[in-house]
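Obj: model holo form, ligand = flavin mononucleotide.
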Amino acid sequence: MILNRPVRLLYFSPTGTTRKILEKIAEGIGEDQPEHIDLTSPEARMGQHSRIKRGLTIIGVPVYTGRVALEAIRGIGQFKATDAPAIVVVVYGNREYEDALLELQNITVEAGFTPIAGAAFIGEHSLSTKDVPVAHGRPDSEDLDCAAAFGVLVNEKLTKTDSLSSVSPLKIPGNFPYRERGPARHVSPDSDDSTCTRCEKCREVCPTAAITLVEGYIQTEKNKCILCCACVKSCPYGARHLNDPQLRQFIQQLSITCSMRKDPEFYL
Ligand SMILES: Cc1cc2nc3c(=O)[nH]c(=O)nc-3n(C[C@H](O)[C@H](O)[C@H](O)COP(=O)(O)O)c2cc1C
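Output (holo structure tokens):
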């Protein structure tokens, strides 16, 4: 049996769907209070190198253009693991996850982990709104039950496995070389000055420090914004909006082409 304690969650999750799923997987494993290593804030990815030894690490990232979000790669790169099993999890907005899970597996191996299971789950699309929904409200209770069930399966695998060296490589879909990330868009959500109260919640949740308060106004640095929409979703006054016409058209399209519900997939 491979030792599965402590259970730690290692994640980048601007809008919280990835974190929710990892917590449920941990519950399925039998750990209600896992250790959290949250890589979402810019400070958490400042390059303090840390070692991870033993225990079970559940690593989760959102899919951005079919790849692992770049900030997550930087964050995970800070860790050097030995003798450490990992579960790799990608969360995507009901379009596709393409090469992201394969990429995450390779990144974790490079960091010294041994991936023993992988999964792709669905979370509300970052760009989803009530009016133009894409996987709105996911992960829902069905997804969370699936995450807990996956945790149970992982636990069974750990119990039956004698040593990390006997774990066979996972058969995860995806291609290498990975797909292109696509060009940077240099667009961002903006604050509507008539409804914004300057509470600075948007600034606090921004994972790339793209938002500042300058002379009483919220300003967003477009070339720092990764369009995660944490600011839009966390604004208590609904004052943040994505106004870029091209992006709005893209979301409209996604809402139609990605309306068919996809289900979580497990690799064990
Ligand atoms: C820049 C960007 C690119 C994205 N690319 C994809 C994608 O290729 N496929 C997909 O299904 N969802 C995509 N999404 C949606 C996220 O993967 C999804 O909303 C995820 O649940 C966000 O995770 P979080 O809540 O942990 O931040 C993208 C989101 C952003 C911001």
